[in-house]
Structure prediction request, 425 residues.
Amino acid sequence: MEFIVSDLAVARGGICVLEGVSLRLAPGQALVLRGPNGIGKTTLMRTLAGLQPALRGTISAPPESIAYAAHADGLKSTLSVAENLGFWAAVHGMAGVEAAMARMNLTDLADRRAANLSAGQKRRLGLARLLVSGRPFWLLDEPTVSLDTASVALFAEVVRAHLASGGAALMATHIDLGLAEAGLLDLTPFKATGAVQAAQGFDEAFA
Amino acid sequence: MIALLLRDLRIAFRAGGGFGLGLAFFLLVAVLVPLGVGPEGGTLARIAPGILWVGALLACLLSLDRIFALDFEDGSLDLLATAPIPLEGVVAVKALAHWLVTGLPLVIAAPVLGVLLHLPEAGYGWLVVSLLLGTPGLSAIGAFGAALTVGLKRGGLLLSLLVLPLYVPTLIFGAELVKRGAAGMAVQVPLLLLAGITLGAAALLPFASALALRINLR
Prediction:
């Protein structure tokens, strides 16, 4: 299954920020989104993940096939690493918590409470969630924030394995993951010019 | 969904999870009222059903904003919204978890507090029945209020203002049920109305709450 986005317009706070965004992701492909701060990378990601409606355009993949890794990792500080990951695995009806921890180098931390993890360790745990989601399309919003070089390399390896197994990844990152095969998409040309207007009035909330 | 219920219960029982907060508040209200009103058994017995119900209501209110606010802050709510569980199911499970953590302990503790307030003997059974029927409705209505105010900074006060008026019918029929039960009168009407409110809230409000959450997540 291909991930096809055509002529998408997305809005943040009722103001259109990107329009005419089209992209294709075949299984095994990765695409890196580039663009200055505030161009709308996160807004685009949230729209693709199905968290907010698009102003215009179509997304071919159903939200059920997309795993979204946001800025926030969604960790519960009073639960241990294994419990946090186990919860998301159960929600997605998947097994493989041990394997996911091993691949993100978290096995030694399995019983540590998430509150006592460093920022980079939390990030690794947040990314390990992708492995137990069992979904083919990964949307990664700045996945490498607070990761050290070794962890970035580790994560690049995980992404590469995901691509090799027929998955696809769309990421917004300023740090090069070292994925030579990844395509590059600059969002600057898609900056909204005001041609697409956001819906006005009460109905906007229910659009 | 069971995983979500277990997670919420586990978090509630861990340090800082807020378990027992509502119960302690309920206990304090029931202890403070006799101190303020005076120890005359007659007066206390007359106001006991109302006081117990108001106390239970406020105790429920205390922990409402935790239902979604914590998950919103750490990003779990975004992830739950994109998870395979329907968001309506998430709301229903979270309301259930709130009831198990807050409402159920109130139901169990209420007869003990009834003693403090000189509740007439015939009223104990009906007190438990009324709370058992009414408090799940309080959690369902409260989850709706929490879903409406989830993105707001310090939405707790607004949440109380929104939710308290919605609690009025439950309070009226709940207290009336205990009052009539204690006086040995027929209880069928308030009993059925109370059960009806709870069932209606539990059946309909998860859908409204899920819609409110989706809008707040944008």
Notes: The mean pLDDT of chain A is 85. Chain A touches chain B through 30 residues (CB under 8 Å). Residues 149-164 of chain A form the longest helix (16 residues). Residues 3-206 of chain A form a domain with the Rossmann fold fold (CATH 3.40.50.300).
